Each structure stands twice: as C-alpha cells, then as structure tokens.
Amino acid sequence: MATLQRIRNHGVALIVIVGLAMLAFILGDFLNSGSSFFNRSREYVGEIEGHKVHYTEYEAAKDQLTEVYKIESGRTDLDEDLSAQIRNQVWQMMLMDWTLRAEAERIGMDVTKDELSELCIGQHPHQLITGRRAFYDENGQFSRDNLVRFLNSIEQETEDASQNANIQQAQNYWMYWENAVRLTQMQEKFSSLMQNLVTYNKLDAKYAFEARQNSVSADFVMQPFHTIADSTITVSNSDLKKMYEARKALYKQTPNRSIEYIVYPVVPSEQDSISTLELMNALRDEFCTTEDIALVVNTNSDLMYDGRNYSEQTVPEMFRDFAFGKDAKAGNVTDLIYTPEDRTFRMARLMDCGYNVPDSVELKVIAPEEGQEDRELGWFTEDALRAQNKQVAEKAFAGKRGDRFTVAIGLGEQTFEILDIAKATPRAKVAIMERKVTPSSKTYSMLYNQAKQFIVNNPTEEQFRDAAREAGMTLYPAYYLNENSDKVDQLKNSRPIVRWAFEAKEGEVSDVHECGDQFVVALLTDVKDGDYRPMSDVQGELTQLVRNDKKAAVIAKALSSATTLDEAAKAANTGIQHAEGVTLSSNRFGNMTEPAVVGATMALEANQLSAPIKGNQGVYVVCAGQKARVEGEFNEEMEISQLNMYTSYSLMYQVMNLLEEKAEITDNRARFQ
Length: 673
Description:
alpha+beta; Triger factor/SurA peptide-binding fold; 4-stranded antiparallel sheet; 22 helices; 20 strands; about 20% strand; extended
C-alpha cells in the first residue's frame, strides 16, 4: 500500500518519464525507418518521367550491352574508354525509351507483341535483325533459317554449366536487339506522326519558291570593325550586364568544376633494373638446361612459350640470325640482351631448327546438316589461324590435303577439311625468356610519399602553384568537368578525381590519386553550380559584342552622310566591292556570311543606296543593281514536299531533344560511377 501511495504521489512525474521514453522509442523507430527510406532512395540511378531506374536495372542493362559489344566485335576485354561509352549509351537509351514511352502512352501509341514478333522473326525482319552477322549464311547474307536456328538453340535446356552460360549470353544478345527493334519502331511511328503534324504550308512554299527565283547583284562598301581602335571605345559594366541579359539563354550550363593537376610518372628506378638483371641471371642456368621449357618460361617470362613455328619473317628480328643463320643449332642460347627503348631483358633458346612447315592452309567448313552447303574459308597462315583458334591451327598444319578434323567450338562441334596446303618453308622453334623492368613496390612507395609530402607542404592554392613551378612541374588544366565525366583528360582510372572535385571546396588540394602509371594531385580551381555561366566567364565575348555595337554606331555615323558609293568609300578609306547573285535563299553576300545585309539588299530598289547596315564583319553601304528573275512554274505540292524532306532528317532528333528537355529527369549516375 505504501508503494502504491508513493506511485500516486509521483504520478505526474512518472507520466512525464514514461511519455518521454515512449517518444524516444517512437522517434528512434521513425529515424531508423527514415534511414531505411533514405538508403532505399540512394539505390536509384535516376528517375525518368516517373520511372525510377534502380541500380540493378542499370547494371543489368550495362552488362547486356557489354555482352553485345563482345559478340559483335569478337573482343573479350573492353578498355576504360569503351566501358564509359557503354555506360553513357545505356543511359541515353533509357532516356529515349522512357521519355518516348511516356509520350506514347499519353497519345495511345504502342508497339504490340504481334507487331514486334513480325518485325523480329517475320518474313521480312527489321534491318536491325537482318544486319546482325550472327544470322548470316556462308555468302555473307542474312538467313532467316539461321535466325530460327539461333532462336531454337537459346531455348534448349542443358545440365552443362558452360553451355548454360553460353545460352544465357545468347539470350541476352537476342533480348537486346529485340528491345532495340521495339524502341526503333516506336521512334519511327512517333517520327511519322510528327512529320504529318509539323509540316510546311502554302505560304512557306511560296516564300521558298520566290526566294530562289529572285536575285540581285550589288556594289558595296564595307568598313570592318577592326578599323576603329579598341582604345577609343568605352565599355561599361552596365553595357556588359545589358548584353549578358540579352544573351543569357545561350549561356545555360550544367554544374561543372575546373581543376589543375600535377603528375608523378611511375617509372622504374635504377635498383629496379638491377633487380631484374639479377633475376634473369639467376634463371639462366635453368633456362639453358631444362627439359620442360614451357614450364620455366611461362612461369617466369612476360612472353609465353606455345611451341609455335617461327619463320624468318615472324621471328623477332634480333633473333633472326640466331634461329636461321649458318650456326643455328638446337640447344643454342643467346647472351642476355637489354633494349633500353622498352626497358626489357631478353634471352632466347633454340629448341628446334632446320625443318620445314607449310606457309599456309586453305580450309573448308563442312555443313552440319544435309541440304546445307559447305563453306570455303580461304587461306590462313599459322599465326593468323592460331589467333582465332589454337586447336584448329594445330590440327590444320599437322594434316595433309584432303584430311578432315573436328574441334569443339561454342555450343557444338565443327568439322573442317584441308583443301590445299602451301609450299613448306624453313621453320624454327624459339623459346624466349623476356622480363620488362617495372617499378617495384618500393619505387611505388617512394613516389607516392613524394606526392603525399607535396600535399602536406602545399595545402593552399597559392602554395600549390608556386611549389609546382619551382619544382619545374607542369600544371595541367582540366575545364568544365561535369558530375558524370568518366575521366579527366586522358588520365586512366581518373573518375575518383571527378568525384572528389564535386565534394571539395574551391581552392582545396586533393589526396594522391593513382591513375594508371602515374600519381596525380589536383587543385580545385573553379566551382560552378548555377543554371547559367556567370557573366565573368563570358566577359571577353560580351566585351567584344558591345564594342562592335559601339564601333558600328561610330562607323554608321561617318557613312550616313554619303550619297554615293564613292563618297562612302572615301569616308571608309576603302574600295568598292561587288556581290553577285544575292538571294534570300542564301546568307552569302559576296564571300561573306551576312544575313542582315542580304535581307536589306533584297529590299532595295534598283540603283538605290542603302543606309549603313551593321553586319557580322563591319558596316556596309550597298547600292543594288537590277533584279533578275528565273522563270519557273510554282508547284505548291512539290515545294511543300521538298521543304518537309529537308527537315525530316533533323526533326526526330529535335523532337527527342525537346522531349528530354521538357521531361522530369533526375540523374544520380555520379553516385554509382
């Protein structure tokens, strides 16, 4: 009872305490939930017209396009530049797909399943399908039978992991092109609709016809702007602001950064050369005597030994006499050779010589099924065939005319026939032990520490620049990096520098970045986050424009009192020039592009002298001659058709740009690169 009474006495305090505890619990749960929400929001690469692009979708699309590149090009590895192109191409395709899809949905346009099926596997497939070499026949032409056979092959089931991987790769290849056909068909439909909606009318046709039919020749005087000294023209800040506001739309920008950077090339030290020399000397005895030369060479050399048959043309030049000279003998070993041009030590052992092997073979592929034709492949040298398929090369050059052999290729087997064999010529087997002098971990550490010390000693912008100049280092500028820039200039693996630039403050010095075979330290020199380039960035351009306007006023005033071209020429201290065949269908006036002058000239009567006209290069005074007219019959329908044809090539490009410009797009790719 006493306890209950104490609780009653402290009831208010307890309520407050319990309330605070519950509030803390609720807030904690909310914050944890909020944290999960924010983490989920960071999983999206972007959003396009309401479609959230999850990073798994983006990565899957990149992987798919990567496989397509590998299949189409025959390459198995992609360099940094090509990988960046693939990333950008995937994003552009997503932009096009989802902006076009959103617009198509608004107007009820679609590509149906039946329509897509007909475009992909119908009797007359889309050119994106017929253009795939994977579906060509032996004559290099598209074969629908090969296409059907390919589609059947990717539907089969197998327990073999390797075959399953190949089937999955083939399925991704087909899905990419099927989607590409769908997207292209949607574009073509939308383009056709736009071309029917955005069309020229009879007034446009009449103007275009008249612009070609009428022409005039003119004499003129032109005083260039540069004849007025810049020092005589005053350009105020208000003049610049006015010009900037008038042209502001031209200076639209995306957020960007500018940097300067220095590099520390990672090159081998003298000790690295000594260490490589010692290693090669230590390997020499084993290299000279071993019976398993492939094991010794392939374990220690930069150049693998595969037992190839070298000819006098294919053996490295430095070993030509060694392998084919009069003293050539199996078992001979060269001295250790060093070539400073590529910093490489080499020695060679002659494994065999004095025998002959055919220069080349002619092969034929045997058709896998009855009713299909065999396919002649042509002639191959051993090296060329080995580069394509080592198994085929070994069996082809070990056989004789008329022999057939079968090798495993891809998901199945392929049978070849040797049609002919070229004359045998001298060959030799040469094992080459090769080691390039490369920077050691100690050299890397030394250069890294030098770069790190530079940062410690020079943390400010002024110190950074002064120290670099004193050390004789080049300051490399990189301007207008945007958030999705894949690299800085041609620096390898320099994407981290771009990320740093968008996280750092202006004037900040970066940490050391390893970019391929060099260390890089960067200085953030400029940060621009506004929608438009600031006036200070374009001040030079604005100054020139304002100055030209003011010079034009000065020149026009001096020429305004002239009543003849001779007087105008005298006032301008120049001669009279001639422009032939001036028409409204062209901006050319003489040998210059001057649309304002063309328009003013066409408005003059014969022998009428114009008032001073401001052009792009200077101020003109023009005297028009007699107007000429080319007789012709106006065909309204043909004129409209020609005008529409001229714009049809650029219309879809302009429409897609406009759709993307007006679309609601969030681009978060920088988080994932």
